[in-house]
Amino acid sequence: MGKLDGKVAIITGAGSGFGRATTLLFTQEGASVLVVDRDGEGARATIAEVEKNGAGSASLFVADVTRSANVAAMVRAAVERFGKLDILYNNAGIGGTLSPASMMDEDTWDAVLATNLKSVFLGAKYAFPELEKNGGGVILNTASVAGVVASPGFAAYGASKAGVIHLTKILALEGAALNIRVNAICPGWSWTPLVARGVGAAFPGAEEQIKQMLAKTAPMNRLIEPEEVAKLALYLASDDAASITGVAHIIDGGISAGRLQPM
Of 3.30.70.120, 3.40.50.720, 3.30.230.10, 3.30.70.890, which CATH number belongs to 8-188+225-251? Predict the structure, then answer.
């Protein structure tokens, strides 16, 4: 018996990275998942992996989650296809351009805040009524250790993820009386396609050196695997976490604990 048997979930940004890993795990645990991404090809590849595993059910929905009409349609699609909604995982995100705030263009700021923060607001806005109809449910939001620990060059990304953490707390308070739990997941560095496109593309041909450099930012000296984030998401979405809400759950190999100092 799976931890999510009979549950219906929406996972955004499910075409790769944390979203794909979580989709695969949720379906293995018995959930039906609406696989949402603006990259239809990536989302179809995720669904192909679900079908290959032969567990759970997955359905495609291509959407731009920065647009209200798309998000409203996404929630309607989940209910129409699967009959209800139990879990929303607001995972879609972008990194933007690494640069000092004084050199960042306004379009980059707007795009990062819209994708990383506005989409979480929109997801909650349209999911809350359906979760309430269902007697409650779970919302998960992908934040980042960058929303907890400040780093130069991450003005838009860091601000967006800090906003996700605070919005998560507000939503948790608003959802408590409705039996809607809301939590954030704050990963450290992971070699997802988002990181490969951003950091990796800036240094072509140096992928292994970049991975080693990013791993060394963590006291545990390793990257976070998407499957580890998926396991945390599963725990938070399941009844095992029935009393946990309004918390930013950090999974970063120790980055946020402080700097390693020589003895």
Answer: 3.40.50.720
